[in-house]
Amino acid sequence: MTWSNDEIAKLVEPDRVHRKAYVDPDIFDLEMERIFETLWVYIGHESQVKNPGDYYLAQVGRQPMIMTRDANGEIHVLYNRCPHRGAKLCTAHSGNARRGLRCSYHAWMFHLDGKLNNMPAMQGYDGTNFDINDPQFHMKKPPRVDNYRGFWFASLAEEGQSLEDHLAGSKLAFDQLVDRAPGKEIEVVGDCFRMVQQSNWKIFLENQLDSSHPGVTHESTGHAALTVESDIKKHGEEPPMAYGFLSDFKRIGFDGWTKFGTVGYPNGHATLEGYMGLRPTDPDTNEYVKRMYEAYGEEKAEEILAVDLHHVLVYPCLSIQPPLQQLRTIRPLGPNKTMTEIWHFRLKGANEAIYQRALGYYYLVNSPSTMVNADDLFNWWKCQQGLESDGGDWVSLHRDYGRDYQEDGVWHSAPDSMSELPLRHMMQAWKTYMTANGKGA
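-> structure tokens emitted (441 positions)
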């Protein structure tokens, strides 16, 4: 089916979305063209290519990319394609190619900035239209590449908003990730968790700020964690703080999530506030705060630590939890298949206990093997299965519709609610991007 802009616009109403937005393969192809191959899409963090010769593979829409660091320390983003016969140059997720990138098909060699270096039997090109200095024989670069505080993005549109303008209010996520480090730098730790979800990419994003699901979906996990905590206390010990990441799902319950507000920023970004600020008064936290005071001064450190933020969605590709040093990026693979990469960061200059605390969340909540992820993945698969059926045409986003309010171009959820504001907000952005005829936004 060929979709007109008017037909696409009718898929999204103020309080509901048509199921075809999640299941139609032609809609998915348009999403790749008009959203993921037009907007700024996340590539990776600078610490993923820490040393000269390091490379890391990413994907922008349907386009395979490589992020590299050359001998001068400069970072480059390139299409992962040899200009000779079209072969991918790299297939390992990451590695080091200090001597340059080599095509395994015909041994064309490229510098880490993508320029062609040499190939075997160069004399065979004498007298032809081949020119080693001609950019058409170099690895192609995306039209636009930029970074914000060490987080690198690419846009395949020749024109459009700058990266900072696109990020708008979601810059808070990156500011918090970096500024909460007493050493004023962060770094990726190890490799990431990778999961392929049998569901549409929008279902994942919607779930991240859906405050009405944790007390239901994760209730059994929370109950199990509370039981373990109780058993530990019976033996006169205090349970590890990380257990609280799970038991909170039961302790907070269903109605308890009304106290956590959500915010919708321009360009489709959204945040969840107030949950898990992680500012207890235990010795480990007090030591961390002391180091923050030493690094920034008390006033500035308190300004950073006072930001009560749990979760930020950077549309269309990121889910970030700054207080826990976690970042998830999505790579849509099809209308019913999405890959997520879950990265964990270390705050340079912070005491080891702060890293271990965040690592506990990484393992207990965000890893592929947790009960939390199992619950979510199962529900997302069930959503996809139901949306592909003829059991109904519309997805309801009615909760607290009409009760949210706007201030200075930013939307806020109704007080004491579990408003579906973020879901409505993202789908309105989706409609805008999808009806923009693929032009830069």
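The first strand starts at residue 12 and ends at 13.
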